[in-house]
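ESCALATION

Customer reports they have been waiting on this structure for their group meeting. Please prioritize. Original submission:
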Amino acid sequence: MPQAVFVLHLDDYQGFVVAKRYPPTFSVNEKMLNLVYYLHGEGKKADIKLIDVEGRRMATYSSEEHPGWLVCFALNIEEDFVQNSKKLAGMGRFILELATRSPDYLEIGEIIRKGAVIEEPTNEQVCARVFLTPSSTLLLDKLQSEGIQKSKTMEIWLRDQLQARDVDLRTAVFPLMDAGLVKVEMVGRDEHSTPPRSGVETVFLIRDLFCYRAPPSESMETTRATHPEITEEYRKYVESFFAGYNPTAQTEDPNSPQVADRETIARRVSDRISYIVIGLLRKGALSVKEISRAAVLPHELVQKILFNMESEKIAVHFPDCDCWALISDPAFETFIPEYVLPVVAQKYVENQIDAESARRYFELLVETWGDGND
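Update from on-call: job pushed to the front of the queue and completed.
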């Protein structure tokens, strides 16, 4: 357990600001703050590091999602950093998510005592981020109709879609690669030919992604046992919502309700604190107090998130038992894009792609979806 923790923020106007510290009596000075910030940024890039600050062992955590913020753990001499680095990073992640909302939300002592952490993003959260990057969503839509495309062609197409000269295809395609939806490979490379062939960089769609709201089946089943008094009312809420819900309606309009709803779901799931609340509600109806205690989150923040989820038709409140439950469960499902195979075959017939590209696409699909995979 760390001896002390403080949260450092580099403000554009005020310089170094200690946003929160635990215990409150822990003393820091300007020299220490400068050293901590400098030493964390020095050398190999990493989110969690062990540094020595004037003879004091400190673990420091930062995140690219929150530039200018740093969580600093003053460690005991005997504390094993290597063994505890994953847990320290998880606590640092948790602390930063709250500190960047408001330092008033932070109860560092409680977080340390209960070992509260936020793990690395789940596959569900990684998939959600695809729909929060407009250029990535455009690329996914394009690949759903093409299956395979040269990177250069994709870049030109994306530039036209965004009406922008400077388009970084790698930045746009990274969320798709991170979610395991696409592979980018050099096709036609031959280092032994004379002269050597460098090949053509090509993008392959190996998984498609469907974002939708699923009925909260597990929650309903559990709630039937824990809160039988709201079982019927809960069932009616869910049935009423899904009676008018159609996530598969086809539309080309980027401003359509389906696209807007997809972004709403993705934004809620990608938000790490909201995701904790969703995870708890998936197990059944809970009160704000129960969520706050289980998640080690401040009551007022939990309440705020639930109100937002209620307006988004994700959660519903039952005044009689003063508890909350999921009315719809955000879901992200990957599947084989077999529908695009005739398109790829036609592109080969029309000489839009060569035999090697077509063959490699089928190989990638077999590698991804063959026996024992997915």
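Sent to customer with the following note: The two ends are 39 Å apart (CA to CA).
Escalation resolved.
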